[in-house]
Design brief:
With 207 residues, the protein is an all-alpha fold. The protein is 76% helix and 0% strand. The chain is elongated, with a radius of gyration of 28 Å.
């Protein structure tokens, strides 16, 4: 949705830029016909000067508009990047042991408050889906794919592409045997994490 609105805004700006010269042309044409009969040389000088001023003013205004817009987007992106990094640090700490015994409830409540104001729509949508799956059945493997979609949305929201990354690629970060997990879930997408743990043990991969 954010991308759609950006494209619409860009097309509108282009349309305005295209229409302005036509408006200027017709205005100058009226002035030309008015002055040409009285003094052709004066008409040429006035139109040339007016055109130069108008074009320069429009160019400066458009340049400043997009420069300000880029500055705002860059600042906003940097605040979102910091917010997303804070989340990943706390969440991934659950798997490397750095936040294993830490109560993350206060952090998540404060983080979600920021999320509402700063995150893009795709980030919010994928986060809500992931959170719902964790609440309803945290043992389903599909919860990890919901996490994967959320991570992709985070990257897209700060201008990073996930093109070329297979579905579930971010499970490599938290699973020891992620290749096996992805291979099995392609055939059995409804597998539970408990089932996968049993498979790991049967293959001697749980050590």
């Amino acid at each position: 949705m954010h991308r759609f609105m950006y494209i619409v805004g860009l097309l509108f700006a282009v349309a305005v830029i295209i229409c302005i010269p036509f408006g200027v042309f017709f205005a100058l044409r009226v002035v030309w016909h008015g002055l040409n009969g009285a003094n052709p040389n004066l008409a040429i000088a006035l139109i040339t000067g007016a055109t130069t001023i108008i074009v320069s003013t429009i160019t400066v205004m458009i340049g400043r508009h997009y420069e300000r817009k880029r500055d705002i987007e860059a600042h906003f992106r940097s605040t979102k990047l910091e917010m997303y990094e804070d989340f990943l640090k706390e969440f991934l700490g659950l798997f490397d042991g750095s936040t294993k015994d830490k109560d993350l409830t206060p952090f998540l409540k404060e983080w979600e408050r920021k999320l509402v104001l700063k995150a893009g729509p795709d980030v919010l949508a994928t986060y809500f889906i992931w959170k719902t799956k964790l609440k309803t059945n945290s043992q389903m493997a599909e919860g990890l794919f919901a996490m994967d979609n959320f991570f992709r949305a985070l990257r897209a929201d700060v201008g990073q592409s996930s093109r070329g990354l297979e579905k579930g690629a971010f499970t490599h970060i938290i699973l020891r045997n992620s290749e096996l997990f992805l291979s099995i879930t392609k055939k059995n997408p409804n597998m539970t994490l408990s089932d996968f743990s049993k498979i790991e043990k049967s293959l001697g991969l749980d050590g």
